[in-house]
Amino acid sequence: MKTKISNMFGTKEEISIWPVLLCLLFFLNSSILPPRENPFSENEKLGLVLTMEELKLSQDVNEFLRNKWGLDVFVSNQQNAFWDLQKMKRFLKNQDRNNPLEFLSEGKFNFPEHQEIYNTYVLRGNASINGGLYVAISLQEANCLKLLDRVDQTTNPDLLDNYRDLLLSYGNSLREMHKGMAELGLIYTPQFMSDQTYETIINKKEFYFENDIM
């Protein structure tokens, strides 16, 4: 199995992800555990691993930016991602599942796509404060859109409850960053979402699922 990834400059390449998937899905399975009341599908297991790595990506990129520029927005983004990730780890623990990020150091990722994004975004964020701001908001936008897509493919009620909370956090961060950049005279246009979806999110105090952005 291969997947096409795009970096922020628009170039694409194919990367085989079967070894990565087999390794990561191992963390979410255990033959010695009793059957669960609401078992995950294989697609849900993969989505959960991806979501956690995306949170780590946000955490690590904003950690780099806060150390470089010291802006409150990067501090807030890093802390939000950190606490969201802790919630997801507790969720896994309550499900008697292992943490797929357990052995990853800062700036290191299981998925080649995430490693490429991290390397590219810290390079751009290192160049200027404005570059850092655009990196931070575009990363949050991309993560939010991916999670919205995952919600459409998820039926597990326990997982959906956690995705609800995470979407609220993503929405709050997007609104704060958009507002802060506007106050600095910086205009951000969505890079991944439709204009309608993005405008709905930044103009609502709360949103959960696709019904809220139709």
CATH superfamily: Ferritin, core subunit, four-helix bundle
CATH class: Mainly Alpha
Q: What order do the helices and strands follow?
A: EEHHHHHHH
Number of strands: 2
| Main beta-sheet annotation | 2 strands, antiparallel
How many alpha or pi helices? 7
Compute the separation of the termini in Å: 33 Å
Largest beta sheet: strand ordering: 1-2
Low-confidence stretches: 2-15, 30-35
Tally of individual domains: 1
Content of β-strand? under 5%
The CATH architecture name reads Up-down Bundle
What does this structure look like?
This protein has 214 residues and is mostly helical. The protein has a single domain, classed as Ferritin, core subunit, four-helix bundle (Ferritin), CATH 1.20.1260. 64% of the residues lie in helices and 5% in strands. The protein contains seven helices and two strands, in the order E-E-H-H-H-H-H-H-H. It has helices spanning 18-27, 42-69, 72-94, 112-127, 129-152, 157-183, 195-202, and strands at 2-6, 12-16. Helix 2 packs parallel to helix 4, helix 3 (72-94) packs antiparallel against helix 6 and helix 4 packs antiparallel against helix 5 (129-152). The radius of gyration is 17 Å and the shape is globular.
